[in-house]
Structures are given as structure tokens and as C-alpha cells.
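Help needed: design a sequence for this.
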């Protein structure tokens, strides 16, 4: 199967037929989507011109209000009372303020920056020498529309409009100003209708908002976003689409308020792109809906046609193949064997099933006969071994009796020793025969436990020592110093090692060398038994663990056997989850047998048990106050601490804990942070404030684990911070440290 189709989940003929339909419709879908994108872009382009006109209208309205303010200031400069006595100047400015709406103050600023007269009474001297618009009016000798200020006298959001006052020689002697209320400035654009979600903003030269719709009061004096301010300062003032701080994409147009001689203000109107493209989006949605319906009908047709013409017939073929694979060789497809492809495939499948049915019948008959013969062999071996053991007991007993009765007769004593050795050898052969019989019939059960393989090797070496001594072999045991833990049956593993050592002694000439090495390798242990005996041919290495397989007998090999030992070794090792292998460089070059057993990962002591053991090492019992509104958590902690020998009191809220601490005087306080009345941090502060717990060890035990929570607990006076579930080993160490102080 094509890997790409498999990754796409197209594993059926019907799904691939539907894929073809989908591929045919894809170009239409792409053209529909592209058409919608073009319509959206066209709608935005069409809206730019109208939006630019609206923005220019808003800027013109605001410029008109500034021009009117400029004219008022020009008229004021020509009135002599402006530079007259303060009372007459104040009266003049007050009259002007009363006659003009949208202004909150008029005033006169001397060259030193002091306000000499004002329409609004001054409660204390005011100096505006630091105002940029004041300095610009003097320097540039013209009308200046200043940036946003929050009035020092009238305490409102304003813009200050200034005009220089000159004497007859043309020298600037003062600056007259008007403070325009920004709420009043905003009224000049109220006649501009904007779609829902649109915004209209006017910003001064520094990008500070001086007019806004909607919700102007909340925005006065705030700075525009960086992206909007950058677009506003672009000399081209071209419309752009920007995402606002509220996450809405808007099309923004920009216009300057008057010329450079009037102001440095800029107006922007932003209309939601979603509103602009609503009609185009609706048209595209209808197109996509029509395309979706068409696609659905086409796919449905492909699904139904594919199901009737292809899928149902292929499903019959698959079901028949599954039944044949499951062993129902009599299964047939039931599809007519026509000339079309699926019919021919059905005919081939039915023919294959018939052939397999005939072969399976012959194979089953041969398997039954073989199984019957194998069972008879196993039963014979088991019975033979059982019957052979019966006479061994009286022979052995008789030999020992003769030895006792004729201990002074050297010949009889020697004969009895020979009989005993041969009975022992015969018993070993019978035991092997019985074990092999049990293993082959699946009757062996292991009594497993955690063992040290070094002890297994020692016991096996002790068992085989008489034979080693008799043949004067030199045996070297290379064992690791640390315990080698495996899980298994001690008796059976001793039998495995003893059989390997016994096999080495049988096939190694007198005075030869045998080495047993035990080492760690990967995730298990490797036990190797190597000798310098007669070795094996390559053909024998491959079947040395089969039943009744033996190397060629040689004149110097006095020990016999039935060829059962290594077969028994393999069976027992596999029962322990391991493996065994053999190797030999060749005849006369010795042999090596390797056993691999999995390592036993010793179960660690449970955290609670280990914690209790650690807690028991504390230098002295402590008075511990546990505060937690979770009853189960509190009582579990109580049981743990009590098991460690500490005296424990429990409180379920902070106020009860404070009262209890005054009486109990705990040395250690375990406090939850999330308590129902006071939080744990406040409780820690209060405990530090009372004499009974001022020097106690405070430990936070909480579900909060953030760094700021840890910092807050440290600031509240906690000595230690533990996140639930509490590590009881760590808690025991903290208690031990507290008891040692």
C-alpha cells in the first residue's frame, strides 16, 4: 500500500473513490475561496474613499472649532482692558467665557509665566512658564494649538490655545490663552454617523487622545497604541488595517486638523473590517454553502455507488479470507466467477480454500499420529523412571547395612562404598529422567523467591565437589562481591548450575580446568561455565540441548549418562524467564555454556514505611500542631506523626489553632495555606506574635506550588515550604532537625 495513502487514512476503495470526487471539486472550491478574498479586498478598497471623506469631515469640524477659538483670541488682543488693571482684565475675560460655550477658562500669561488675570478666579498664584504652547506662542509669534493638559486651575481635561499680545512696536509683552474643554471639542464631531464598533479619535502632536468616540471621558489623556501612532505619523496618511487593543481589526483613515499654522492634531476613524466585508462575506458564505451541498451530494453518490458495485463484493472476499485464516477451510465466497476482476479473484480464492482444506486434513491426521506417539513416549519415560526408583531404596539400604555389620572387613566396606556411589549415580539419572518427563508434560511448578545467585553457585559446587575431587579437576569460581539477586526456585537453579558443572566434569579429562564466572550484563546476569575438555563440533553445538543428545564417548570418560542434563537445564532456565546457549571453538578446544537470567529489581521500601523509620530516629518526641480543614489529610498526618512518637493536636481552622497553640505550646506547626477563615500566611504571622509559638518551627503544607506562593509564605514567617502530597521522608528529616535544636 502507498505509504502516503495509508497516512491519509485512505485504506479502502470507497474512500479512494471519494478522494477522486473531492479532487475533482477542489479547483472549484479554490476559485470560490479566492473569489471571496477578492470581494473582501474590493469591499475594503471601496470603503477607503468613503472613510477618508468622513475623516476629512471630522477634521474640518474640529478645525472650524479651532479657527473660531483663534478668532476669539485675536479679538481679545485688540481690547485695551486686556493689559489694563487686573480687575478690569478679569471682568473682560469672565464676560468672554460666559459668551462662549465649550471653554472652561480664558487668561493672560505674562512673559515670566505668571497668570496675571483669569476668567476663573485664582485661589493661588499659577505659573505656566513650563507650558510648551506658551513658549511656542512667544517664539513663533502666532496662534498655537497646544497639546493635551489637565488644567491646574480648573482641574479638567483641556487643550490650551494661545496667541501672542504685542505692543505698538511689535514686541511680545504677554500671551492670551483659552482653555477648551475636551468634552466640548468632542461635540463638533457628533454629527458624523459611524457604524457600530467604529472609533473616532483625535490626537495631539505627542499622540495623546484629546477627542474620542465612543466613551470619551475614559480615554482623555491616554496615548494611542504604538502601531496606530506610527500609522498616524506617516506623511502619506494612507489608510491601513490595524488590530486594536480590544482585538478588533479596523480600517483606519487619517486627516490633519487644519493646516500646520492652525494645529498639529490628527483625526483617525477606524471602522471594523468585519462590518466592511459583511456583504462580501455573506456572498462568499452562500457560495461555499452551495459548493458544500454539491460536494456532499457528489460524495454521497460515490459512497453509495462504491458500496454497491465494489465494497460489498470486496467485503465478501475479505470475510471469506478471514474465515479461511481462522481455520474455516470450507468457507467459500459465493460470488459468481465471471470475467470481471472481482469475479476472477473470488474464483482464485475459492480454489485456494479447497486446496488448503485437502492439505489441512492430511496434516491434521499426521499431527494426531505424532502427538499420540509423543504422548506414549512421555508416559513410558515417566513409568520407566518411576519403576526404576523402586529397587534403588532397598539396594542402598542393604549396602549401608552390610557396611555396619562388617565394618572390620575391608573388602565388604569397599564393596558397599562402590554400591552407594552407583546407587547415587543411578538416582541422579532417574531424577533427571523424571524431571524431563515433568517438564515436557508441563507439570513442573516453581517455588519462587528472591535469591542470591552466589548462594546458588555455592550449593551447586558443594553438590558436585565429590566428582570434581575424584577427577582432580581445578575449578575456579569467579563471583561478584555484591549480592546477585534474581527471582526463582532455589532448588531448580541449583540443579541447573550442578548439571552444567557435572557436564563439564564428564567431558573434561582428569586434571583439567573448569571456570564458573558470574557477572552483571545489561538488565540481567550472565553465568558462564567454561572447560578445556573435548569440545564440540559445530553440528553438535546446535542440538546439544535436545533430549538424549551426547558427545562421542571416549575411553577416558568414565561417567555415563542419558543425555538429559542439558535438556533439563534449558527447560528450567526458560521457566525462569532466561536463556541458555553453548559454544565451542572445535574438537579438543573445550566448551562454554552461558546462562542469562533477568535481574530482580528489589522493591523499595514504601515511602510511608521509610518515613516512619526515619521519623523514629528523631532525637526526641515533639509537640506538633496540625492545622488543615481536610479531615482525612489531617488525621492521616496525625497517624504518621503519632507512629513516630510525637504528640499531636489537630485544628481545622485558623482561629481554633491560635487558641489551641496558647495552651498546647507546639514546637512544630504544620499549617495548610487554604483555610476557611484566615489563610495560612496570616495564621503564621499571628502565631509568630504570641509567646507560645514565637520560636516554633513553622512548616507550610499546601497544594500551592508557585514561586510567588513560596515567597509569600517566607515573608509570613514560615521556616519550610512543602507541596502536597507531603514527602514524609522529608518531613521526618525536618522534624528530626527541629528536635535537635
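Sure. Designed sequence:
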Amino acid at each position: 500500500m502507498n505509504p502516503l495513502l495509508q497516512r491519509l487514512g485512505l485504506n479502502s476503495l470507497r474512500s479512494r473513490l471519494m478522494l477522486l470526487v473531492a479532487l475533482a471539486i477542489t479547483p472549484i472550491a479554490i476559485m470560490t475561496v479566492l473569489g471571496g478574498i477578492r470581494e473582501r479586498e474590493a469591499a475594503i478598497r471601496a470603503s477607503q474613499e468613503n472613510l477618508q471623506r468622513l475623516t476629512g469631515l471630522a477634521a474640518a469640524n474640529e478645525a472650524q472649532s479651532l479657527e473660531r477659538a483663534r478668532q476669539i483670541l485675536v479679538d481679545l488682543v485688540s481690547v485695551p482692558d486686556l493689559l489694563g488693571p487686573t480687575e478690569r482684565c478679569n471682568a473682560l475675560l469672565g464676560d468672554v467665557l460666559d459668551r462662549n460655550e465649550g471653554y472652561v477658562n480664558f487668561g493672560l500669561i505674562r512673559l515670566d509665566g505668571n497668570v496675571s488675570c483669569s476668567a476663573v478666579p485664582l485661589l493661588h498664584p499659577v505659573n505656566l512658564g513650563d507650558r510648551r504652547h506658551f513658549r511656542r506662542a512667544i517664539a513663533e509669534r502666532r496662534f498655537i494649538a497646544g497639546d493635551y493638559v489637565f488644567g491646574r486651575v480648573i482641574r479638567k481635561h483641556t487643550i490650551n490655545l494661545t496667541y501672542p499680545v504685542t505692543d505698538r512696536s511689535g514686541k511680545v509683552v504677554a500671551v492670551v490663552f483659552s482653555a477648551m474643554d475636551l468634552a466640548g471639542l468632542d461635540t463638533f464631531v457628533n454629527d458624523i454617523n459611524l457604524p457600530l464598533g467604529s472609533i473616532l479619535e483625535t490626537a495631539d502632536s505627542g499622540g495623546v487622545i484629546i477627542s474620542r468616540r465612543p466613551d470619551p471621558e475614559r480615554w482623555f489623556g491616554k496615548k494611542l497604541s504604538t502601531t496606530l501612532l506610527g500609522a498616524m505619523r506617516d506623511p502619506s496618511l494612507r489608510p491601513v488595517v490595524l488590530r486594536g487593543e480590544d482585538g478588533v481589526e479596523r480600517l483606519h483613515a487619517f486627516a490633519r486638523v487644519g493646516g500646520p499654522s492652525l494645529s498639529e492634531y490628527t483625526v483617525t476613524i477606524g471602522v471594523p473590517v468585519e462590518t466592511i466585508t459583511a456583504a462580501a462575506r455573506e456572498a462568499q458564505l452562500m457560495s461555499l454553502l452551495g459548493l458544500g451541498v454539491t460536494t456532499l451530494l457528489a460524495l454521497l453518490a460515490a459512497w453509495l455507488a462504491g458500496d454497491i458495485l465494489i465494497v460489498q463484493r470486496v467485503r465478501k472476499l475479505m470475510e471469506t479470507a478471514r474465515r479461511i485464516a481462522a481455520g474455516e477451510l470450507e468457507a467459500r465466497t459465493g460470488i459468481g466467477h465471471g470475467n470481471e476482476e472481482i469475479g476472477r479473484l473470488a474464483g482464485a480464492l475459492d480454489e485456494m480454500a479447497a486446496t488448503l482444506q485437502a492439505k489441512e486434513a492430511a496434516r491434521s491426521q499426521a499431527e494426531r499420529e505424532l502427538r499420540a506417539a509423543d504422548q506414549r513416549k512421555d508416559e513410558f519415560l515417566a513409568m520407566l523412571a518411576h519403576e526404576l526408583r523402586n529397587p534403588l531404596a532397598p539396594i542402598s539400604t542393604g549396602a549401608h547395612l552390610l557396611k555396619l555389620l562388617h565394618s572390620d572387613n575391608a573388602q565388604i566396606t569397599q564393596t558397599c562404598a562402590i554400591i552407594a556411589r552407583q546407587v547415587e549415580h543411578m538416582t541422579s539419572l532417574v531424577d533427571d529422567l523424571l524431571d524431563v518427563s515433568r517438564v515436557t508434560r508441563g507439570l513442573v511448578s516453581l517455588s519462587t523467591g528472591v535469591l542470591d545467585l552466589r548462594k546458588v553457585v555455592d550449593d551447586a559446587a558443594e553438590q558436585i565437589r565429590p566428582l570434581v575431587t575424584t577427577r582432580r579437576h581445578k575449578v575456579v569460581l569467579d563471583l561478584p562481591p555484591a549480592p546477585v539477586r534474581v527471582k526463582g526456585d532455589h532448588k531448580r537453579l541449583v540443579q541447573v548450575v550442578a548439571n552444567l558443572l557435572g557436564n563439564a566434569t564428564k567431558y573434561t579429562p582428569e586434571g583439567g580446568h573448569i571456570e564458573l564466572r558470574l557477572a552483571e550484563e545489561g538488565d540481567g546476569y550472565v553465568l558462564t561455565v567454561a572447560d578445556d575438555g573435548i569440545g564440540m563440533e559445530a553440528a553438535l553445538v546446535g542440538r546439544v540441548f535436545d533430549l538424549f543428545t551426547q558427545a562421542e564417548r571416549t575411553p577416558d570418560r568414565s561417567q555415563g549418562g542419558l543425555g538429559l542434563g542439558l535438556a533439563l537445564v534449558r527447560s528450567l532456565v526458560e521457566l525462569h524467564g532466561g536463556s541458555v546457549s553453548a559454544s565451542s571453538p572445535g574438537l579438543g578446544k573445550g566448551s562454554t555454556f552461558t546462562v542469562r537470567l533477568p535481574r530482580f529489581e528489589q522493591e523499595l521500601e514504601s515511602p510511608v514505611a521509610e518515613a516512619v523509620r526515619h521519623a523514629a530516629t528523631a532525637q526526641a518526641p515533639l509537640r506538633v500542631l496540625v492545622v488543615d480543614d481536610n479531615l482525612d489529610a489531617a488525621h492521616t498526618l496525625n497517624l504518621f506523626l503519632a507512629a513516630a512518637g510525637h504528640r499531636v493536636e489537630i485544628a481545622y481552622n485558623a482561629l481554633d489553632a491560635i487558641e489551641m497553640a496558647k495552651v498546647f505550646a507546639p514546637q512544630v506547626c504544620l499549617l495548610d495555606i487554604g483555610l476557611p477563615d484566615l489563610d495560612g500566611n496570616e495564621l503564621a504571622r499571628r502565631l509568630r506574635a504570641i509567646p507560645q509559638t514565637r520560636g516554633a518551627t513553622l512548616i507550610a503544607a499546601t497544594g500551592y506550588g508557585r514561586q510567588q506562593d513560596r515567597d509569600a509564605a517566607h515573608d509570613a514567617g514560615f521556616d519550610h515550604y512543602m507541596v502536597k502530597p507531603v514527602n514524609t521522608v522529608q518531613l521526618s528529616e525536618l522534624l528530626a532537625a527541629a528536635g535537635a535544636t
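The chain is about 50% helix and 20% strand.
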